[in-house]
Design brief:
eight-stranded parallel β-sheet, 45% helix, Rossmann fold, 20 helices, alpha/beta
Length: 469
């Protein structure tokens, strides 16, 4: 069993943790003035050469907690391919790389990101330059170990699993097993997550040696600065309530989480039709498009991100004001990670979960796991009648979204590349194009032409088609 370590009052500075001046200077440049709880508890243990299991809330500085000791040991004895950091999602891998480069800017650290969906040849060239730290997803790392000539991890000193509970699940089992066979037994291993598994057999798969468990949060806890609410309503009004909430949160940045790629695409189109600057992110988009969508949202070019759980783990997006769970997550872990995208690094934030009659059981399980009851969203109050006033506009926007989806699907099947670009559909071209103006204009023209059809549904349909020409 790992030795458990509960943090006392954190030291007042990074110097007292034993960090070298170069790293303290980098922390100061990044605005890190005092260590967080997880950093104060884990960095001294890591500098002593211990294996670590770290459990802390989302947004508490876990990346710096494992990056700083690795960079300090690397500075003392430089060598290529010194550390390997595994992440469950591609976006998280890029983010960890940015943190390593920022924290190691004063010592000249070199990093390489190796993830799926990108060109293997350019990654092989980056690996041939012998970076100090490789940040990767498990599948693509194994591809390179098996197929890239001259690349191996036989001299590896540190293996880090960020979001370790996800990596140790069976989904990544085969890749992790292969990796552990080709890296040295004499190494340090760090496991970090906000929802760490307690199952011993899972932890044993990581081949830890006499680890210390640094725990600064309970298994299912959220930060105190996060306000958590729910809204209960009939399923048929789901899009109306989402639209109402986003109107209430106008001017704030929001992430809306869904369960499927299809609903992500549909909602993004529907919201654009209604004039919201929404962009979508899901696993069926190509990697450049995923990074492009994320960059638009991070830079403030879009204020609403509609995403599947691919965006729920580890992503640190500054200034996210609210998280809306359009679909109730299927597990308490997913809920913790979703709402952890807001109220990060001491900032305030709010989350709202949309609950229909079909979601009550899942929602109650989440409440039970957290040991608390969530409050009903106060801004609704007696305004439920106002929500239903949006019904007609939302229904029309949803209808157009469905038509665009069908167009995109038909064009994709026909292989009509030119048609797909003109249609502004929801596939990769639409995700890149993100053409709210043409969509909004299409909707307005469709509304203007609808009365000519004579009021019947068939005539309205003709009006809609005419509006799209």
């Amino acid at each position: 069993m790992p030795e458990e370590l509960k943090p006392s009052d954190p030291p007042v500075s990074f110097e007292s943790l034993g960090l070298i001046p170069q790293l303290i200077e980098a922390c100061t440049k990044l605005g890190f003035t005092t260590p967080s709880d997880i950093q104060a508890a884990s960095i001294p243990q890591a500098l002593e050469g211990r294996d670590i299991i770290g459990l802390a809330q989302t947004g508490s500085g876990k990346t710096a907690a494992f990056a700083l000791p690795i960079l300090q040991r690397l500075f003392a004895s430089p060598q290529p391919l010194y550390a390997c950091v595994l992440a469950p999602t591609r976006e998280l891998a890029f983010q960890i790389s940015e943190q390593f480069e920022a924290l190691g800017s004063t010592i000249g650290v070199r990093c390489a990101v190796v993830v799926g969906g990108m060109d293997m040849m350019s990654q092989a060239i980056a690996l041939s330059k012998k970076p100090h730290v490789v940040i990767c997803t498990p599948g693509r790392l194994i591809d390179h170990l098996e197929n890239t000539k001259g690349f191996n991890l036989k001299q590896l000193k540190y293996l880090v699993m960020d979001e370790a509970d996800r990596l140790l699940d069976l989904d990544f089992g085969a890749e992790i097993e292969k990796l552990l066979k080709v890296i040295p037994r004499e190494r340090n291993t760090f496991l970090f997550s906000a929802t760490m598994t307690s199952k011993v057999e899972k932890l044993q798969r990581a081949s830890l040696v006499n680890p210390v468990k640094v725990e600064v949060a309970t298994k299912y806890s959220t930060v105190a600065t996060l306000l958590q609410y729910y809204v209960f309503f009939p399923f048929k009004h789901k899009e109306c309530y989402l639209t109402y909430l986003l109107n209430e949160l106008a001017g704030q940045t929001c992430i809306v989480f869904t369960l499927t790629c299809a609903s992500t695409q549909k909602l993004a189109l529907m919201l654009r039709n209604l004039g919201f600057d929404a962009v979508c992110l899901h696993g069926q988009m190509s990697q450049p498009k995923r990074l492009g969508a994320l960059t638009k949202f991070k830079s403030g070019g879009r204020s609403i991100l509609i995403a599947t759980d691919v965006a729920s783990r580890g992503l640190d997006i500054a200034g996210v004001d609210a998280v809306i769970n359009y679909d109730v997550p299927q597990s308490s872990k997913d809920y913790i990670h979703r709402v952890g995208r807001t109220a990060r690094a001491g900032r305030a934030g709010k989350s709202v979960t949309l609950v229909t009659q079909y979601d009550v059981e899942w929602f109650q399980r989440i409440e039970h796991s957290m040991g608390r009851k969530l409050d009903e969203y106060p801004a609704l109050g007696k305004d439920r009648a106002a929500v239903l006033l949006l019904q007609e506009r939302v229904a029309e926007a949803t209808r157009f979204a469905h038509m665009q989806l069908k167009e995109e699907l038909a064009n994709a099947k026909a292989g009509g590349v030119g048609k797909r670009k003109r249609s502004g559909g929801v596939g990769e071209d639409a995700a890149e194009k993100d053409d709210e103006e043409s969509v909004a204009g299409r909707l307005v023209r469709g509304n203007n032409k609808a009365p000519r059809g004579g009021g019947g549904s068939r005539g309205g349909g003709r009006g809609g088609r005419g509006g799209r020409k």
